[in-house]
Design brief:
- The protein is α/β, with parallel strands linked by helices.
- The chain has eleven helices and 14 strands.
- Strands 9-10-11-8-7-6-5-4-3-12-13-14 form a twelve-stranded mixed sheet. A two-stranded antiparallel ribbon has the order 1-2.
- α2 links the parallel β4 and β5.
- The structure holds S-adenosylmethionine.
- S-adenosylmethionine binds next to β5, β7 and α11.
């Protein structure tokens, strides 16, 4: 079992399988993209399989596959097959923009992979195209509805962006009223790959909640697991729920149970700091398993208690894009 220096059990790994993405969301990266890593600097699929096995051996029981966009990797299903056969791994989840998932839906179902987070910051095509800089709305919307109707456990992640998509908050809840999905509203974070200067946010979780309550006054607070990053609510008469994720306000750090490994091997114990180690060369050298475990234990033993503490320790300028660090 992995336990950090603040006595928190670490059982959740967010594993990025690529830094590449086929969208260009303006809060994530500039229109020309970022300096993507060379292929040889990314873990191969065999290395990702081996890494997952090592991590599960250390007590990780939940892995979320993220990126970049996981489905731009043509060999992604090889990893997902491996994960679904790993004893001790109880939860395999995927975070995706849902542009490329369509052809894989049946296979995911047959593997028993049901937990899919779809990142969707708009419910109007124009808003979507303005934010993502790509004409993919219809495909994403159709895949989203397919996933829901095929019985996947779908959560929509919606970043609230001043002057961009606030007008879509109420309509997305209206539209999802009849579906058993959770729409989670997130605060913007300062990881945009230099696409704009990040000062602070206008739309924090309290403002988003007040905005929703002004339209739907009858909301009930739902119980959430201790390690949940979202505070969840039910609107009277709605089949689905909604949640608020204070990703910039960082009110949830105390119960953090997660660790990130980027597609290039960075071990990230908190988004608001620097990587604690890099595992790529370690993976490609002798005694890989033993040395990877040692690096992981070292990283977990030096975690900050909160994202504010980590930011204070780091004292750097956030230039990274979420596509590199695995959102
Ligand atoms: N391509 C996949 C997707 O779109 O879900 C996975 C990777 S993406 C980087 C993961 C998540 O990070 C998405 O939900 C995205 O909205 C979020 N994200 C990216 N940049 C962000 C930022 N600056 N602030 C908050 N969330 C961000």
């Amino acid at each position: 079992m992995l336990v950090d220096n603040h006595n928190r059990k670490i059982n959740y790994l967010r594993l990025a399988v690529t830094d590449r993405c086929n969208l260009r969301c303006n809060y994530c990266m500039p229109s020309e993209g970022i300096q993507f890593a060379e292929s040889k600097k990314l873990f191969s699929i065999e290395e990702l399989c081996k890494l997952s096995e090592i991590m599960v051996g250390q007590g990780i029981d939940k892995i979320r596959i993220t990126g970049g966009e996981p489905f731009v990797r043509k060999d992604i299903m090889v990893l997902l097959h491996k994960l679904s056969a790993l004893e001790g791994l109880e939860d395999i989840s995927i975070t995706t923009n849902a542009t490329l998932i369509g052809p894989y839906i049946e296979e995911l179902k047959s593997l028993g992979i049901r937990n899919i987070n779809v990142s969707l910051d708009a419910i109007h095509k124009e808003t979507f195209e303005k934010i993502t800089r790509r004409d993919q709305y219809d495909i994403v919307y159709n895949n989203l509805i397919r996933l829901i109707t095929e019985g996947f456990n779908v959560r929509i992640n919606f970043i609230a962006l001043e002057n961009q998509n606030i007008q879509d908050i109420i309509p997305i809840l209206e539209l999802m009223k009849h579906y058993p999905v959770s729409v989670r509203f997130l605060e913007e974070m300062p990881f945009n790959g230099g696409s704009k200067k990040f000062e602070s946010i206008t739309w924090n979780y309290k403002k988003i909640l007040n905005h929703i309550i002004s339209e739907f006054p009858e909301v009930t607070l739902l119980p959430s697991p201790k390690t949940s990053t979202s505070v969840n609510y039910q609107i009277k008469g709605h089949k689905g729920t909604f949640g608020l994720i204070p990703s910039f306000s960082r009110t949830f750090c105390g119960s953090c149970n997660r660790l990130r490994i980027s597609a290039t091997g960075d071990v990230i114990t908190c988004l608001y700091g620097k990587p604690r180690a890099n595992l790529l060369d370690v993976m490609r050298s002798e005694n890989a398993e033993q040395n990877i475990t040692a690096h992981i234990l070292q990283a977990i033993g030096t975690r900050s208690k909160t994202g504010f503490e980590e930011q204070e320790r780091y004292k750097g300028v956030f230039e990274n894009s979420m596509t590199s660090i695995g959102g």
